[in-house]
Design goal:
homodimer, 182 residues, mainly beta, Ubiquitin Ligase Nedd4, Chain: W, Nucleoside Triphosphate Pyrophosphohydrolase, 3-stranded antiparallel beta sheet, 2 helices, 14% helix
C-alpha cells in the first residue's frame, strides 16, 4: 500500500493532516498551496469465466499470495468501464478473450479500502499464462482448490457461483472486515 | 478534478510520466525515490430513498450543478462499505436515516473516472437540508423535475426506479461516455 502522503503532489510543499472546513474527516492539506488531498477506496474488477461447466483460475506468479489460485482480477483503470476492466484483467492474466455476462458479486474489502466487482463470463477461445500468472487451468466445480484460493473476496464469489451456477439473477453483496484481505 | 501530479507525495521529488517495467500504461514515477503513483477511478455511492411511493431528492447548494436536484450521493470513504457510504451520504445531504435495501444500479461514468453505485432505501423518520443542500423534498413519481436533475447517472437510476418501482431484482448497469458527467 502507498505510504502516507508527506508532500503535496501539486506544488511539492509539505502537508499537514487536519479536517478541512465543511468536512468531517482528516485529509492531507498542503501548507503552501492549500490543496486538499483525498484518499478513497479503489476498485478491483474480475471475471468468473465458465467453459464446459468448468471455471478458469490463474496461479499467481507475483506477491501477494504467490502460488495461490485466483479468479482473474485487478485494479480498474481510468478510461474503462468496470466490465471492460474485468475483461482486460482476464486478457492480461489468463490470455483469454471472454464474452461478458452480468455483474455477479460486489464485495467490500473494507480494511484495505477496496471494492471488488466480479462479472460472469464465457470463454471464447484459448487461454494461457500472462505475466502475473504461473499457470491457468479450467477446474470442474468439484475440483476447485478451496484451500489454495488467493483472496477471500474471490473465494466468496466462487463459492456462490458454484452453488447457484450463475443462473440466479441476484448480485451477491458481501463485506469483509478483517485486516487481512486474503 | 485534482491537477496532474508534478511532485512525489512520498519524498517531494519531481516525477516523470512513463510506462513502468511490466506495466502497459503511463504512470507518474518519482525521479528520486522511484515510487510509482497510480491514479484510478473513484466510487460515488448514493440512495434511492422511498417513502409513501415518493422519492427523496436534494436541491444542491454547491457547485457543480448548484440549484439542481440530486439523489443523495457522494464519494465513498475509506473505512466504510459502499452501502454504509450510501447511507452516510443520505444522512449528510438529506439529514435522513434510512433502512438500506439492495444494490440497484451501477453506472460507469467513464470520462470522469467514476463508478456510481445506487442502493434502494426506505426513509425511517424525518429529513432536512444538510450543508450541501438548499432543500430536500419528497416527489411523487409523476412530479419528478426531470429537466432539473443534476447528474446523468442519478437520472438513469431514477428513470429505471420510476419504471420498475425497485421491485425488479436486476441490478441496472449503464455506461456513460460523454465528457460532461451531468
Amino acid at each position: 500500500m502507498m505510504p502516507r502522503m508527506k508532500f503535496c503532489s501539486v506544488c511539492g510543499g509539505d502537508v499537514s493532516y487536519r479536517v478541512p472546513d465543511g468536512d468531517n474527516r482528516e485529509r492531507a492539506i498542503c501548507n503552501i498551496c492549500g490543496t486538499i488531498h483525498y484518499k478513497n477506496p479503489l476498485i478491483v474488477v474480475g471475471c468468473l469465466v465458465e467453459h464446459d461447466d468448468k471455471i478458469l483460475l490463474c496461479k499467481r506468479s507475483i506477491e501477494p499470495r504467490y502460488g495461490y489460485w485466483t479468479v482473474p482480477a485487478g485494479f480498474m483503470e481510468l478510461g474503462e468501464s468496470s466490465a471492460e476492466g474485468a475483461a482486460r484483467e482476464t486478457r492480461e492474466e489468463a490470455l483469454a478473450e471472454v464474452e461478458l455476462g452480468r455483474l455477479y458479486a460486489s464485495v467490500d474489502v473494507i480494511e484495505v479500502g477496496q471494492l471488488h466487482l466480479y462479472y460472469t463470463a464465457r470463454l471464447k477461445g484459448s487461454f494461457g499464462a500472462g505475466e502475473e500468472t504461473l499457470e491457468t487451468r479450467l477446474f470442474a466445480k468439484d475440483e476447485i482448490p478451496w484451500d489454495d484460493i488467493a483472496f477471500r473476496s474471490g473465494k466468496f464469489a466462487l463459492e456462490r457461483f458454484v452453488e447457484d451456477g450463475g443462473r440466479d439473477n441476484t448480485v451477491h453483496i458481501h463485506e469483509l472486515r478483517r485486516v487481512k484481505s486474503y
